[in-house]
């Protein structure tokens, strides 16, 4: 599109609630996007291009930019576009929805000059095809979130999926069972904790995962029902995505994540003590030996010793075997 409109660069932008979701321009360094975010270039009172936006598929250009700038010329944005040599051009709104905005633009440099009527006509013709491509990409990203949620659900994982903006895009049934005022809640599309200090820690581990500062972060929550472990895992970043695909998985593990009767059922099935049944139940939920020791208030050596006894009683040699047959028993009991 850039060459067809005589433009130094073509730009596709998606702006969501309070922040830029996606800003891609041909032949433009990442510093451009960082600079745009730093000056809050998504705001109409900052960016004359945003202020000049019209209805979907209506082209606006320098004539409209001039009118906005005559009333309110924002120095920060003017410095930005002049620094990146993209002051002129034309644009089109592709979609303007409650939580997201999509636009296509031809960015002209000083050498390109102001757009011509023919160049703007090309932009007008390209718009519908660009919107079709956006809708397909969004569908693929949402489908990816659904597929991942279904996989986690099938494995009975208590998991919450967050997109690149930190908003919740999926919650498994097992996680829904653990949500509450003592743990965490989904409020206005975000994951929050009731206590301010806990919420600050929660937002910190989510932020670390989103920024990939720490690929895995954990937070212990203390409740009257016992401790619950939250872990945030960073998913691989996609080079071309609008931000709706899952970016972070937050898992929840609790001693009561499974029914309180399961330790007794496991004990009855394998001839285990109550304590041994609880250890197997925790293993099934995905807890490590160290985590089980923390939950039960004993040493890792004590857990290892108990597991050796459990292996003998269950006639297995490895934890994976133990978890597999324990899951089968739980499923039989649930059926």
The amount of beta strand, in percent, is 15-25%
Mind telling me the C-alpha Rg? 27 Å
Helix content percent band:
40-55%
Strand adjacency order, main sheet = 2-1-5-4-3
What's the main sheet like?
5 strands, antiparallel
User: What's the helix count?
Assistant: 12
- Give me the secondary-structure category: alpha+beta
Shape-level CATH architecture of the largest domain: 2-Layer Sandwich
The residue-averaged pLDDT reads 85
Fill in the CATH topology of the largest domain: Beta-Lactamase
Number of self-contained structural domains = 3
- Strand and helix order: EEHHEHHEEHEEHEEHEEEHHHHH
From the N-terminal CA to the C-terminal CA, the straight-line distance is 59 Å
By CATH reckoning, the class of the largest domain would read Alpha Beta
GO molecular function, one term: DNA binding
InterPro entries: PAS, PAS-like_dom_sf, Sig_transdc_resp-reg_C-effctor, Tscrpt_reg_LuxR_C, WH-like_DNA-bd_sf
GO biological process, one term: regulation of DNA-templated transcription
Protein name: Response regulator
């Amino acid at each position: 599109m850039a060459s067809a409109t005589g433009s130094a660069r073509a730009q596709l932008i998606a702006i969501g609630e309070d922040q830029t979701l996606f800003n891609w321009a041909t032949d433009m360094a990442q510093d451009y996007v960082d600079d745009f975010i730093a000056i809050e270039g998504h705001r109409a009172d900052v960016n004359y291009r945003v202020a000049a936006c019209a209805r979907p598929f209506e082209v606006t250009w320098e004539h409209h930019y001039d009118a906005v700038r005559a009333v309110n010329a924002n120095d920060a944005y003017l410095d930005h576009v002049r620094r990146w040599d993209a002051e002129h051009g034309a644009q089109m709104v592709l979609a303007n929805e409650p939580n997201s905005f999509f636009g296509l633009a031809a960015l002209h440099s000083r050498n390109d000059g102001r757009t011509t009527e023919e160049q703007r006509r090309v932009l007008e013709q390209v718009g519908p095809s660009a919107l079709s491509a956006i809708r397909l990409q969004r569908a693929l990203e949402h489908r990816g979130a659904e597929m991942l949620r279904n996989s986690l659900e099938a494995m009975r994982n208590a998991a919450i999926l967050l997109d690149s903006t930190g908003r919740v895009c999926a919650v498994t049934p097992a996680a829904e069972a653990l949500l509450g005022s003592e743990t965490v809640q989904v409020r206005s599309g975000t994951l929050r904790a009731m206590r301010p200090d806990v919420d600050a820690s929660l937002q910190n581990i989510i932020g670390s995962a989103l920024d990939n500062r720490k690929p895995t972060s954990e937070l212990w929550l203390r409740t009257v029902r016992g401790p619950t472990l939250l872990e945030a895992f960073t998913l691989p970043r996609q080079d071309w995505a609008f931000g709706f695909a899952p970016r972070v998985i937050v898992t929840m593990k609790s001693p009561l994540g499974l029914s309180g009767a399961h330790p007794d059922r496991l004990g009855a099935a394998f001839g285990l003590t109550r304590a041994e049944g609880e250890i197997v139940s925790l293993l099934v939920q995905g807890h490590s030996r160290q985590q089980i020791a923390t939950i039960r208030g004993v040493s890792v050596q004590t857990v290892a010793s108990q597991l050796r006894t459990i292996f003998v009683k269950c006639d297995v040699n490895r934890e994976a075997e133990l978890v597999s047959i324990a899951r089968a028993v739980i499923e039989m009991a649930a059926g």
